What we know:
The chain is an alpha/beta fold. It folds into 3 domains: 6-22 and 248-456, Alpha-beta prism (UDP-n-acetylglucosamine1-carboxyvinyl-transferase, Chain); 25-243, UDP-n-acetylglucosamine1-carboxyvinyl-transferase, Chain; 458-675, P-loop containing nucleotide triphosphate hydrolases (Rossmann fold), CATH 3.40.50.
Amino acid sequence: MFSTAFLDLPALQGASGTVTLPGSKSISNRVLLLSALCQGTTVVHDLLDSDDTRVMLAALRQLGCGVDVQGTTVTITGLGGQLKHHDAIEFFMGNAGTAMRPLTAALAVLGGDFTLKGVPRMHERPIADLVDALRLLGCKIDYLGNDGFPPLHIGQPSLKLDAPIQVRGDVSSQFLTALLMALPLSAKTQDIVIDVVGELISKPYIDITLNLLARYGIAVTRDGWQRFTIPQGCSYQSPGTIHVEADASSASYFIALGAIAEGNSSKGSQGDGIRIQGVGADSIQGDIRFMDAAAQMGAHITSGPNWLEIKRGAWPLKAITLDCNHIPDAAMTLAVMALYADGPTTLRNIASWRVKETDRIVAMATECRKLGATVEEGPDWITVHPLPNGKHANASAQGQWKAASIHTYDDHRVAMCFSLAAFNADQVPVRIEDPKCVAKTFPDYFEALFSVAHTNANHIPVICIDGPTASGKGTLASRVAQALGYHYLDSGALYRVTAYAALQAGLSLETNDEARIADLARTLPVRFEGETVWLGNEDVSDAIRTEQAGMNASKVSVLPTVRTALVALQHSFQRLPGLLADGRDMGTVIFPHAPLKVFLTASAAQRAERRHKQLISKGISTTLDSLRADLEARDARDSSRSVAPLKAAQDAFQLDNSSLSIEASVDQVLTWWQAKQPF
């Protein structure tokens, strides 16, 4: 997961490949609570690992449930409808609506001394209609802040079940879901009837609830979408094991991607389109109907029991007008798809957007305008006009694509939707602020996107940091890479790793084995994580930092075929979203067109002192004078060598860090980098 302050998406040109989705948030949190209300043990497979599910798991532990997490498999030992203790408990619910609403109802029916709080935005999300319904039932619930909003205090109920319970359906389907999941606890001697007041929105989410209740032994009957009856004498029965479907709303981003992006023509038909694993057309989740809307816009979609394949069909996409009541969350993706359409697209019946993680109508309108689009909005609708789509531009397209920094409002769907804007025809980049907000439902979303997206190498940014030995370029480069979420290349380590790998393979470091060493170097499975160097699954950081390893690196570095192979390997590190490369010739030879080049220097005395401290900490005895002499001699050799000499690129920024902290050096490089961005 990217935990950087922002993530810059370069202009992306196409996408192809396979994506495996995480488990559904809606199903995951429902299953966790239902398992907690059962007697006995339920094994939940393929559970979503996200902020929202962690909130629910933490709450269940507080209630006294047994919770055993093993990867994506979680074993829940339930309460059997009875609290194990009656101590006062305070729950922190974050911004997890799928945990807050159902848990409020369940706790209110069970009774106790409970306080439920969340982040500030949770305290702005209405809950009055659920509370009103529970109060009419005889539940004891008090507001601790503003009436109608969390935080809440829950006490002991005096349940009254002789009349139908009324709940509004036009604000959030989560209110009805919460009641449907809580009230079977009280249906021991009579049927319990719930009447929906007004139009029920998000009906597919109620379908999910009813489907899962049936899996747990609760057969709710419904009269249309207005009346629901929980049968007398029902009780929760564990299904033993249950599997969580992949998240259909998360599928919307990749369905849209397949509709928008060109395939990889270099791979022929095998590289065309996006295949989504984990969810198919027969999903119990209402958001799977997003694929119907995408098809209306021109996407070519085929499906199986657990997969979807999406290819670009009509281009530009076809403008639509759609009632989105059935796909309220996934419909946000349509607003970004509309930028690629042949006319204005209008999404209606989306009033629920206003009470989600943020006011999503305002958010989508604001951020689409930043990209250059014309947008109109109303109480429960939004109209998005397209932007030019290259050679397929149309008369209705207005303005032009603009590079934009997208504010994400701590809303995972905003972040994921607007990542699709990076495929624009004007080839401008897009910045996603606070990318870690996707942890709510899809922590590895951007990694999944980059695994299938492709673009020209010249669109993938590279920052080069060159400099002499012991100047601190490795530490600086890895810190900047971490701050930007970029890949990291320690070019000097490649020669050390090559020599190490060659010796491990039984090769000599002489000309007679040059061809075999070069072959090995071309496919060297090396990667850098911070200042840790991995060769396959082996941490070789210490093994390649010895004096002997340095001498071995010098031996392979003079072999021309090996150097050529390593140039190609270094180029392969230029991957999305960007690269931070350090060495002696990164900006002059390997990446001469890098948009930012830094030449890092420090006095020989300062570098000798740093190296001395480093060696002493490792128990290696040496002297400052000898180290300084060695560094000065190495500087002279590196600067005068005929191939790729150590020198600053003509357009490099000079940075002398003799008296600078690493933090100050990082800030300076980031300042230079930001000055080159269009945001």
